[in-house]
Amino acid sequence: MAGPSVALDRLIDAFGRLPGLGAKSAERLAYHLLKAPPEEALALAEAIRAVKDSIRYCQSCYHLTEADQPLCEICRDPRRNAALICVVEQSRDLLALEKSGTYQGTYHVLLGRLAPSQGIGPDQLTLDALERRVRAGGVTELIMATNPTLEGDGTALLVANRLEGTEVSITRLARGLASGSVLEFANKEMLADAINGRQRF
């Protein structure tokens, strides 16, 4: 059945392509904008346009940066330890680590992870740039912070294989039980990681 307007149908379709939004949510958003004052709807459109025009990838780590800044705020910060590189899949992973306030090194954003079933191979990631950074010297440790999934682990293994023969130490984030958690509520993957990654007391 045709909708009331081709323009409205296009808007619903556009919202429906956003990750995490189903058909009903897309429809609700579209109708909300239709009823909203013009200035509110146009402010959203302007915010989207401004982000697309003013945000770029950092030339060093591929985190997000302003268009007039070739390096992101973290790469520009002289207090950061450039000898440490924490490798993450997306900028949102970097932001989550930054919230902890404990890491003072730099990052490298892969812009994804290996997912052959979705057509994402090594060429779609920023692996070449990471390898150039490491081989240029000055890096002592690479911390693999890819997600603990089959694809994330495969990506970390690929990075380790590509950097084999360098003097760089490659580590990965600890896994297993979180502080304050209870054994009976942990799933089997968490418990397996906790057993396999056990440390001296």
Give the tags.
13% strand, 201 residues, 6 strands, alpha/beta, Dna Topoisomerase Vi A Subunit, Chain: A, domain 2, two-stranded antiparallel sheet, four-stranded parallel beta sheet, globular
Characterise the protein shown here.
With about 200 residues, the protein is α/β, with parallel strands linked by helices. Helix content is about 45%, strand content about 15%. It is built from eight helices and six strands. The chain has helices at about 5-15, 25-35, 40-55, 75, 90-100, 125-135, 150-160, 190-195, and strands at about 55, 65, 80-90, 105-110, 140-145, 170. The strands form two sheets. A four-stranded parallel β-sheet has the order 4-3-5-6. The longest helix has 17 residues, at about 40-55. The chain is globular and about 65 Å long. The N and C termini lie far apart (about 65 Å). The mean pLDDT is about 90.
